Structures are given as C-alpha cells and as structure tokens.
Input
Amino acid sequence: MEYYPWRPAEEWATGGGAAIKPMTDKQRGRLYMVAKKNGIFVAFLGIKDSNGQAVTKAEAYILINMIQDGVRPSKEFMNSLGRNPDAYTTPSHPRYWVRRDNPPTEMQRVWLNALIDRLRVPEAVKERGMAGLTLGQASLLIGRLREEEYSRPNGEPSMVFANALQEVRNELPA
Output
C-alpha cells in the first residue's frame, strides 16, 4: 500500500492480520454504499474476486475512508487493490519505507487536497505547506489531518494545518 493507515492495523480488533485477511461482508456493504452515494464504480464489488482482485481488510478500510473524505480514486489505484501476492502482516511506519523520500503519489495529493480544503485553509498556505512534501510525510499528514478533523479542533484552520505539518516533518524529516 502507498498509504500508512491512520489507524495502525495492530490497533484493529483483528490485529495486524487485517493486511492479509479478505475484506469482510460488512466492509463490502459499506464500500458499496459509499461508492454508490458518490457515483463511483467499484468493479470488484460486482463479482466475487472480479479481475483477480482479492481486496484485503486494510485496503477496503483505506478505500472507504478515501471515498468518505471526498476523494475519487483513480482507475489505476482501484486496479492496484487486491493484487499483492506477498501481503504483509503489519503496515510499517513510513520511516522504514525504501521510497519514503519520493514525491507523494497523485492519490495522496488528491486526498490531502480534499482534507485541507475541508479545513478551509487558504490556497497560498496550502501550496507552501505541500511544497517539498515526501511520500512518507504525505502518508503521515493524511492521518494527522483526519485525526484533527474528527477531534474537532479549536483553532484557526491555517494553524491546525501548520501544526499537523510541523509534527509530520519533525517525525519524518526529509
């Protein structure tokens, strides 16, 4: 996966096995509902194991959150799900990723833009903050911004964004 789940798999009720276990019927139903509500076609929901995709619980979790955050997953991203023959057991922290210093993926940029726009951060502040962001930092920032959004922060949106960005850059320097 290119995204570090904001809620680590070892904290889920099923433990780290979420990265290798197939998506549940409950997740399949939730994914169907959020995709339909947002006008997103999910091919692997129509036919069991469609296109050879064996989507995991972790992948379904991330996809559901992306769609709920207003992100339209790209066709390439959707096709990449459930195709890892060597599924891992626990998502590692981005500091251990070989490509952590690469630029963020297009899907990470889209997801970050959706989260930052919901905070109503001015465009100039958003652009300055996103400049030089790495793949690993983008992954951590997605998690931090989601945590901030759900904790209902009391503060000026630009400061909420700046503080989350500074925490991420301190945790994972480029």
Summary: Confidence is low (pLDDT under 50) at residues 1-12. The chain has eight helices and no strands. The CA atoms of residues 100 and 136 lie 4 Å apart.
